[in-house]
Design brief:
The termini are far apart. The chain is built from five helices and nine strands, in the order H-H-E-E-E-E-E-E-E-E-E-H-H-H. About 25% of the residues lie in helices and about 25% in strands. Strand 1 (about 25-30) and strand 2 form a beta hairpin. The model is unreliable at about 5-15 and about 145-163 (pLDDT under 50). The longest helix has 12 residues, at about 110-120. It is an alpha+beta fold.
């Protein structure tokens, strides 16, 4: 029996064009064929509250005194707000099984909360699973518009809407 192949040997093979293009979608492939996984939003180091992951948030719906919660990458993003106060919270509203649920992400800094809110607003109408898989390097390079605070989709200056 021979020894197991090294990682380098595993990737030293000719790639057909369709397979190469598919791999490019999931990975950053450098010319020397070093493969680096693209960072995803769901794995962002600042999407944690303490040591607990913040993405996806716990989705909550309250009607007639009954509170329902849903966990996981479910639903479609409908609205995004942030608390303009000192709390650094981003509020997301999703549609899931024909009902609206709200989730809250507590961010470590105000600037990250603002960036996250703006990034998520660009993806309203997409599934939470798809958003969690987005390339976070795009998020970090994105510039915020100067009039972001006056955005018409922006929550009130004091708090997120109450549903």
């Amino acid at each position: 029996m021979g020894s197991a192949p090294s990682i380098r040997q595993l990737f030293e093979f000719p790639l057909s064009r369709p397979i190469f293009q598919e791999l490019q979608g999931a990975f950053v492939i450098k010319k020397n064929f070093r493969i680096i996984a693209r960072p995803r939003l769901r794995d962002h180091p600042l999407l944690k509250y303490g040591r607990v992951k913040n993405w996806p948030p716990v989705w909550t719906r309250g009607t007639k005194g009954i509170v329902k919660t849903v966990k996981g990458h479910v639903g479609v993003l409908k609205e995004v707000y942030y608390d303009a106060g000192p709390s650094n919270k981003c509020f997301l509203v999703i549609d899931y099984q024909r009902q609206s649920y709200m989730g809250c992400i507590t961010c470590p800094t105000r600037s990250f909360c603002t960036q996250l809110t703006h990034f998520l607003r660009d993806h309203i109408g997409r599934s939470i699973a798809d958003i969690g898989n987005l390339d976070v390097s795009l998020f970090e390079r994105k510039k915020l518009p100067k009039d972001f605070r006056q955005s018409r989709h922006h929550a009130s200056e004091t708090s997120a809407p109450r549903h």
